[in-house]
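Q: How would the structure tokens look for this protein?
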Amino acid sequence: MKVSYEQLKSEFKRVLLSRKVREDLAEDCATLFADTTQAGAYSHGINRFPRFIQQLENGDIVPEAEPTKELSLGAIEQWDAHQSIGNLTAQKMMDRAMEIADQFGIGVVALKNANHWMRGGGYGWQAAEKGYIGICWTNALAVMPPWGAKECRIGTNPLIIAVPSNPITMVDMSCSMYSYGMLEVNRLAGRQTLVDAGFDDEGNLTKDPATVEKNRRLLPMGFWKGSGLSIVLDMIATLLSNGLSTAAVTEDKDDEYCISQVFIAIEVDRLIDGKTKDEKLQRIIDYVKTAERADPNVDVRLPGHEFTTILADNKAHGIPVDDSVWEKLKSL
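A: Here is the predicted structure in token form.
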């Protein structure tokens, strides 16, 4: 089914207000959830919203909490989220990283006691729209086996890198081949994943999303490389924020909260003039796009460029929503 942006935002806000979230916070949070869904990141927009409400009701999310700065060291700052609303806090932290970058050329904000930020790519995009290089990542619950194991001990720990090209070029990637959100999207659509998503109960690679959702044997992105990347991102986020690691969150908490995140903004304009920047980026884009196609009917992929098309289409024709997901939202 298709719904309008206004319908979607109204439903999000209704549910938030019914849970006694302050009106201004409900408005801002509903806007971010609607923006994420309209941009095509359904797995971390409408599909994730019921999980967000569950954590709100459990007290894992403290809606009126405000993040506070704990330490400043030149271009690096440590902040404590105090379990505030994840997407609103992440947006503030990337704004703060850009403010620091205006002074030092680079700004690094490390955040502890954070909640799930929903669509991480939104914060990289936020920086790139304003002309900065945006980099951010988060640790998470242990929901993926490290390479060589079948027991979950590492997080999917998504990493985002956004470049202010035209259109914006952005990698928004889980350290697993598929996030659990994208497994759900594929399962709801009744389809297998494009490439192997994990292992079945016998240890064989599988493209069946339901199997991997159930046994939680996600395949790390790039096999041992994704596993290694997850571990070092967790280590850096833990050290920079002085917060909890994936191990600590998994062993010491009863759900995914009090996680650690990093937001980095790099100011480009004082490093290179605008015309030269645009020319260099366009040459890279053109060089990649003009490579001979493996399939004549499929464009060469540039990361993040599809979101510009998806957003325009969803604005013009409405936002596609799985019927069962819409009914679940309406019932909250």
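The chain is about 45% helix and 15% strand.

The two ends are 19 Å apart (CA to CA).

Upvote if useful.
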